[in-house]
Amino acid sequence: MCLLLTTQVSAQPFLTQDQNPFSLIHGQPQPVAARLPEANTGQWSLSLDITNTLNAEKNSSENLLVDFESYHLRFNYLYALNDDWAVKVDIPLIHYGGGFLDNNIDSWHDFFGLPRADRPNVADDQFQISYTLNGQTLIKHNSSDGGLGDIQLALSNQLVKNTDSALSLWTSIDLPTGSQANLSSNDSIDLSLWLAGDYRFHPDWSVDANIGVLFPGENDIENLAVENQVYFTYMGIQWQAHPMVDLRI
Q: N or C: which end of the chain has fewer CB within 10 A?
């Protein structure tokens, strides 16, 4: 749950998505509000995701180690062409490295008696993403890197918009402006189609959701298989605790 300062009357989703690097590069869009801006007006936003991950798994044929801290800065601009149509551009900057939060996270878990998983056995502030299949190393990244990610262009049509509910249809294209070498792109075009809706069921309470499908482009990253269609959803509930304060989960 997070505290949001806002003057918006409609539900505003968290501007985040799956931060797994092999999901992030395939163009899944951030959640969007169901209500488009007024005609000939624009909205901009800036979001920053800081992700710290340690995941070590193996079985008889596979060995996976994911140990990194990433910073994902994203600039979004949405412009309403008229009352029914809007365009949106997302420009991401992505950096992967060892970071500095490993010890803080492990100490937090240790202090509160939470599971520490593999963190006590792995040195802090390392960066490595590696995957081995049947003795063959398919992925190995161990040096910090980053840069411009894939720029995404989206078009939206307002289907429903009234006092208590709204529904909009969105489609997007993810352009290969990033680099496969530093895990900021899959070097191909990805397409998405989704619906965004919200409903105010009480003067102070509302729910919202995004649900859609992603069509990833061709994938050349170390011979990893990618699904032809990937379904995604986002749901939130918002309580307007004060005219200037919303609580959301």
A: N
